[in-house]
Amino acid sequence: MVDFQLLQKYNVAIPRYTSYPTVPNWKEELDANEWENSFKHRFSIDNKANGISLYLHLPFCESLCTYCGCNKKITTNHNVEDEYITAILKEWNRYRNLMNEPPVIREIHLGGGTPTFFAPENLKKLINSILENSVLHPQHDFSIEGHPNNTTREHLQTLYNLGFRRVSFGVQDLSDEVQRVINRYQPFSKVKEVTETAREIGFLSINFDLIYGLPLQTQANLEYTLLQCITLKPERVAFYSYAHVPWTSKGQRLFDENDLPSVDEKMKLYQLGKRLFSENGYYDIGMDHFSLPEDNLYQSFLEGKLHRNFMGYTTQKSAIMIGLGVSSISDTGYAFAQNAKILQEYYNRINAGESAVTKGYFLNEEDLCFKRYVLDISCKGKTTFKPEFRDLLEKYTIPELKKLEADELVVLTDTGVEATAKGRHFIRNICGAFDMYLLRSNLNAEDRKFSRAI
Q1: Other C-beta atoms within 10 Å of 83: how many?
Q2: Fewest C-beta in 10 Å: which of 36, 43, 66, 133?
């Protein structure tokens, strides 16, 4: 059981570290020419060596889930599909023109929004167009996010035929009262049906997204949700903390904040989930992710080959990720670039023959060094200190690590640091000890515009 007092102590606002530096530290205006020249250079180096990853943001949903903090567009008009796919393929062709050779595609992930909002034939057109004149990496890994209510057998069969072997279903919570207040109705029977269909077709890894801390959520109804889901044995589970950020997600203003669990209640929900997953054979990978031992995510974790990017944890360690679509983020390892966040602006830029990127960051040598520390901690639970920027380690990081060591969350030596078994519950906090931007800011927890650790 995770110690309740430690959960209270370390339940501070802190980034999720899908990138370093984190998005709030990026530049609001990015020189698109500089980004494309940087991409072109890195592609020529890394493509054949590691292949590339693609993240395709498909933002449409038929109804608004009030808890959701994603970039989405609510509509029941499916005529929007053609226009959006045309724009994504124009953006892809712009990147193709920067490439000196066919791309080696190692990873594709379709995220949302609700990717299964799109008709199977449109998803087929999209993927086939991207794969045309491309090279498939021998260890390629294709995955999609799906809503249990609208993911059909035809969706799954079409995707399987295109090479997809992983699917993630947004389950979130199964209790009637929680589903009502978050405006997401999906009976367990639908979750069971779509899971069994995916397995029957041949999908090898199924993930469930679950959330703790939702309005009206109690230990009793969360336990019902978790035990029901565990009966289906999803190979992976993402057990996310509900991030209440109404200043960026207006839909979260549609329910009464008094219905949210208290801080203490939310931590008990977290403890409940950790216990049930452990008792049912799931291993804690870190940062809210759990895996059965037979899944390759756990095998990659054991072998020290786990990687983390804007898609979360992945077994594919490609150096370049191209984000296509509104608000998508690209990463070359040395620079980040984010597309326009407003759909019409994205369309305007693409249709004018311009780059869609509007925001981003070019990493300096210090950033690259501390990015490696953050990735090591989040993926391996340990890191080795480098001689570069040792003065910053001594001034900012070591004092923070000593505080964590006093609570038996890390083992600190002259050469590095490793999370203890207890410390693995606090990976975000340990990553924070290497966040030079956070440490130099002198912000207290209440001033940080991040979700809380628990």
Answers
A1: 12
A2: 133
In degrees rounded to 5, what are phi and psi of residue 261? -60, 150
Asked if 18 contacts 312 with a C-beta cutoff of 8 angstroms, the reply is yes
CA–CA distance, 430 with 424 (Å, rounded to integer): 9
Q: How far is CA 3 from the centre of its chain?
A: 27
- Res. 449 pLDDT band, cuts 50 70 90: low
Is 135 found in the same domain as 11?
Answer: no
Question: Which of 3, 16, 4, 8 shows the shortest CA–CA distance to 427?
Answer: 16
**Other C-beta atoms lying within 10 Å of the C-beta of residue 448:** 16
- Tell me if 143 sits within 8 A of 168, measured CB to CB: yes
Over the stretch 113-128, which tens digit does the pLDDT of each residue have?
A: 999 999 999 999 999 9
Rounded average pLDDT over 319-330? 96
8/35 same-domain check = no
User: What amino acid occupies position 336?
Assistant: F
Q: Which residues contact 70 (CB under 8 A, 6 or more apart)?
A: 59, 112, 113
pTM tops 0.85, yes or no: yes
Residue 443 has pLDDT above 70, yes or no: no
Check whether the bond before 21 is cis (ω within 30° of 0). Answer: yes
pLDDT band at 349 (very low <50, low <70, confident <90, very high): very high
Residue 375 CA to residue 356 CA, distance in Å, equals 28
Residue 43 CB partners (closer than 8 Å, separation 6+): 52, 98, 99, 100, 103, 320, 332
Residue 328 neighbours by CB under 8 Å, 6+ apart: 55, 56, 57, 338, 339
CA separation for the pair 229, 89 (Å, rounded): 37
Residue 272 sits in the same domain as residue 380:
no
**Residues whose CB is less than 8 angstroms from the CB of residue 323 and which lie 6 or more positions away in sequence, other chains included:** 54, 55, 57, 310, 329, 330, 331, 337, 338, 339
CATH of the domain at 379: 1.10.10.920
